[in-house]
Amino acid sequence: MRAQLARSFRALSGPLLSGNTQNAQDVVAAAAADKAVNPMMEVLEERRLLSTYYVSAFGSDSRSGTSQSSAWKTINRVNAQKLKAGDKVLFQGGKSFSGSLYVPSAEAGNGSSPLTFSTYGSGRATINSGGKTGLDVAQSGGVHVSNLVFNGNGMNSNGVPGIHFHIDHSNRDKSNVVIRNVEVKNYGREGIKFKINGRGGSSLN
Q1: For residue 31, what pLDDT is reported?
Q2: Best CA proximity match to 96, nearest among 123, 61, 133
Q3: What is the pLDDT of residue 178?
């Protein structure tokens, strides 16, 4: 600012001494215009829009899923959605949904922004996965699961765990896995299974 004023006064010295006040006014206006066209720009941090998706027994997969009145209907629609860290998927409490939830590595959460599966409304929702795993999370952490029931088709009818977190690649350190108030039943293997196959210091907690 001082440098700009100094340039303005140096430019004004000639016109003022000669009595040409119009030229002086023009120089001052030009200096102000130069400042106006070179504003200071502030760099803003990147912000992500987080989404909450609802799944209802009375919903429709053709809807947006982003409110209770526009809820989806099936687990297939949930699996088709590209989820991101911080998103939530809420199932209608007291209702049952058929299918197996799958979370690939590209869609999981992270240490500070988990991907959440839970219930809205009254009671817990039930995920009837038949002979498949109720929730399969691959190569990832950053997943919170709460207030859900995972139900298989019988201990003698399938050979899979109810909830399965697994890391099959090397050098993968994943965290922020929380499972709370969840019932897992009627699976032929473990109710909740954590498996680390990758070498090179992979971990999951």
Answers
A1: 52
A2: 123
A3: 94
Structure tokens, 83:
């989820």
pLDDT tens digit string along 20-32? 555 555 644 555 5
3-state SS of the chain? Answer: CHHHHHHHHHHHHHHHHHCCHHHHHHHHHHHHHHHHCCCCCCCCCCCCCCCEEEECCCCCCCCCCCCHHHCECCHHHHHHCCCCCCCEEEEECCCEEECCEEECHHHCCCCCCCEEEEEECCCCEEEEEECCCCEEEECCCCEEEECEEEEECCCCCCCCCCEEEEECCCCCEECCEEEECCEEECCCCCCEEEEECCCCCCEEC
Residues 6 or more apart whose CB falls under 8 angstroms from that of 41 comprise none
CA 201, 190, 129 angle in degrees (round to 5)? 110
End-to-end CA distance of the chain: 55
- Among 94, 90, 84, which Cα is nearest to 65's? 90
